[in-house]
Design goal:
alpha/beta; 17% strand; 332 residues; 5-stranded mixed sheet; D-Maltodextrin-Binding Protein, domain 2; 13 helices; single chain; 35% helix; 2 domains; 12 strands
């Protein structure tokens, strides 16, 4: 496991290696060889639905999508260190502001795309252990999993709500900070902690947790997922088309089915001949790396079609596709 500068260099090498892998397995021989490839950085909480959105977008265009999935703070750091990203989606305005301040996004394309809700969850076999916010301060609740409240958006939002509710002082010592909201969810699923605060959309993906209560909107920080085109992308036309797709009706159906709230919309409607996005997602399961470990899911090869999903923490991803080592940068 890398730390500090070594981690950042590993992230860049991973991204560049997988960008170079435009000819892996069926991709090389398939009908889309030579099609434009977009590297889209997306937060861990979007890891499932963005695979479905990418599948639907590819079914209507000649483009290919590579998803780089990690915590928003890591995605921002990658861009600040020069990772060759085309489109970034963040779960936090603050992280998008970091890359904007460094001139790494095209500010004119920035849009507030989605919103979400926080929920408190407990292991599925302890469903009745807590029922309201005050229960988190009880002595019987010893450990509470959050995204790192200093960096991970879900944790920052959770700390903001707990502070506003007057509970942070009582629970701060119980917090088990996680590197992403999905890592916090996994901690609750495993029973290693007594409770966790995650996005509602993450709780909907799990059978290993039970929702104890929804965090009241009153007093909770607004949750905003901004998206933008990277400054200097070599694929501006395809990148803008993908951003428009994210704001359109086809993607909205997928986001809303996953529990997200749409903030941005455009008047574009998919053509009558376009494939139903939910049907596309249903017949083509999304493949991605696990965002909280350094090894991909057992059933997934990073060379498999229709997409290669990048794990931002995996530094050997290039080797899995038989790629030579790389030191960063976008291949020519």
């Amino acid at each position: 496991m890398f730390t500090g500068g070594r981690l950042r260099r590993g992230l860049l090498a991973c991204a560049a290696a997988l960008l170079a892998a435009t000819g892996c397995g069926q991709w090389a021989a398939g009908p889309r060889a030579g099609a434009p490839v977009l590297l889209v950085s997306a937060p861990a909480s979007l890891s499932d639905v963005m695979g479905d959105v990418a599948d639907a977008f590819e079914s209507e265009t000649d483009a290919r999508i590579l998803l780089n999935v990690a915590g928003s703070h890591l995605l921002a750091t990658q861009m600040l260190e020069g990772a060759p990203v085309d489109v970034i989606i963040s779960a936090d305005v603050r992280q998008m502001d970091r890359v904007a301040a460094a001139g790494r996004i095209d500010a004119a394309t920035r849009v507030d795309l989605l919103s979400n809700r926080l929920v408190a969850v407990v292991p599925a076999d302890r469903e009745s252990s807590i029922s309201g916010p005050e229960d988190l301060a009880r002595d019987t609740v010893r450990r509470i999993a959050l995204g790192d409240p200093e960096a991970v958006p879900a944790g920052v939002y959770a700390r903001g709500w707990l502070s506003a509710a007057g509970l942070w002082g009582a629970v701060a010592e119980k917090v088990a900070p996680a590197g992403s909201v999905r890592a916090a969810l996994r901690a609750v699923e495993s029973g290693a902690v007594d409770a966790g605060i995650v996005y509602r959309t993450d709780a909907l993906t799990s059978t290993g947790v039970a929702v104890a209560f929804e965090v009241p909107r009153e007093g909770a920080p607004p949750i905003v997922y901004p998206a933008a085109l990277a400054a200097g992308t070599p694929n501006p036309e395809t990148g803008r088309r993908f951003l428009d797709y994210l704001r359109g009706e086809a993607a909205a159906r997928l986001f809303e089915a996953a529990g997200f709230v749409r903030l941005a919309r455009i008047s574009h409607q998919p053509s009558a001949a376009a494939a139903d996005p939910l049907a596309v997602a249903g017949r083509t399961p999304s493949r991605r790396f696990d965002v909280v470990t350094t090894t991909p899911a057992a059933s997934f090869s990073p060379c498999d079609p229709p997409h290669r999903r990048l794990d931002a923490l995996a530094t050997n991803a290039g080797e899995k596709c038989g790629l030579p080592p790389t030191t960063g940068g976008r291949p020519s």
